[in-house]
Amino acid sequence: MPKVDYVKVAKSPQFKKLMQDRKRFILPLTIFFFVFYFMLPILTSYTTFLNTPVFGDISWVWIFAFSQFVMTWVLCTIYVKKASSFDEQADQIIADQIEKGGKAS
């Protein structure tokens, strides 16, 4: 495989668009994750709502805590599926740079 000048790749509009797309995807998911994650200790420390029983001895705090595991798996699955499209974009950028003569000297 020919060598690629990654400095030229990093300066290309395609690469900048890839980075912008990744940021637009990852930032909201990260914010959602942190808000959802920190709501459990905040709600248990400052409210009593989660202490309300749902089914017998199972309270909302147990459901919320379990939902954090589910949320982690769901976010990981979403990321893995979306990451494949980012990989395709990156492969296309490298192929385009090779075709345009973006090889390292």
How many strands, what sense, and barrel or not for the largest sheet? 2 strands, antiparallel
DSSP strand content = under 5%
Q: What is the number of E strands?
A: 2
Strand order in the sheet with the most strands: 1-2
Secondary-structure element sequence?
HHEEH
Shape: elongated
The computed structural class is mainly alpha
Rg for CA atoms: 22 Å
Name the poorly predicted regions: none
Mean pLDDT: 88
List its salient traits.
mainly alpha, two-stranded antiparallel sheet, 2 strands, 76% helix
Written account of the structure:
The chain is elongated. The relative contact order is 0.18. The protein contains 3 helices and 2 strands; from the N terminus they run ααββα. The longest helix is centred in the last third of the chain and has 40 residues, at 60-99. A two-stranded antiparallel ribbon has the order 1-2. With 105 residues, the protein is mainly alpha-helical.
